[in-house]
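In the previous chapter we treated chains in isolation. Here, by contrast, the input contains two separate entities that must be folded as one system, with a combined length of 346 residues.
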Amino acid sequence: MVGREVIGAHYGWRGWLMQRVTAVVMLVYTLLLLATILKLPALDYEHWKALWERPLMRYATVLFVLSLLLHAWVGVRNIFMDYIQSTGLRLVLYVLVILALVAYGVWAVQILWGA
Amino acid sequence: MRFSIYRYNPDVDAKPRMQDYDIPLEPTDRMLLDALVRIKEHDDTFSFRRSCREGVCGSDAMNVNGKNRLACITKITEIKEPIVIRPLPGLPIIRDLIVDMSQFFKQYHSIEPYVKNETPPPERERLQSPEDRDELNGLYECILCACCSTACPSFWWNPDKFVGPAGLLWAYRFIADTRDLATNDRLDNLEDPYRLFRCHSIMNCADVCPKGLNPTAAINKIRDLMVKRAL
């Protein structure tokens, strides 16, 4: 392969926009979660368990986790693009991060519906 | 007046060093550039670029007490002693304060900095309305001194791939020009995770620009157009 400098991948705005949209989703969820917890009559095991048994709570949390994973993916990829010069190493790191994020997502669902 | 100045002559020196100068200034020495010329009278091995001495040519950009600025429009009374002067960060050193700006200009050329319009030109000139012309304010004043791009960490890490704040400001200058008909090609040219999206909006560029311009704002407008085009 020639040592040609190649640039011009024709993508970028999706990730940039996604990071902003997911940030808003996470902010709204965090505020609602705080308000919900503050409104609990008592912060004990029974109320906590009842709270997480509500389907709305679980689905909203799945949405939050999904936003978090996408947000983290764009952000971590940006850090690698900034600092990791070797393309091969970058690819390996991308794969590891994707695997880790997917695992976190599955784990989060398991926690939410496992109890 | 006390100065600490970066000195490096690759032909002679094994590595760069900081040299201290204590030079009496004349009452007519008002700007930092006057002081540098005075230092050169005492030590003619000291090298730096300068030309117009009034902030128009962009030759004497340098790092003064940690901030990139033009020596010719920096008042001596504005800066604290000892004045530490280094070359613009992140570019290869040719000698002392003189840096190799090839990479910077390569990025500038990559955005094709000229009006593209294939329609037959009118008899005299392509006219703009005063409102359309106003769109170019805050863009056309850039003198390509490289203060902004060499203050940008993204340009330090990826100078070969990231266009940098100066180049992107110029890219928007031609996107904003109603006489230019290549907006779509220009957006295609920039739609890349490295060329445009290495900008993380930390605004070092706007902070240091000696002409008071805001490349981050121009970059945001390019991103907005790109999103608007796609959505």
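The longest strand of chain B covers residues 2-7. The beta strands of chain B are 2-7, 17-22, 61-64, 67-70, 83-86, 93-95, 98-99. Compare these points with the single-chain example from earlier in the chapter.
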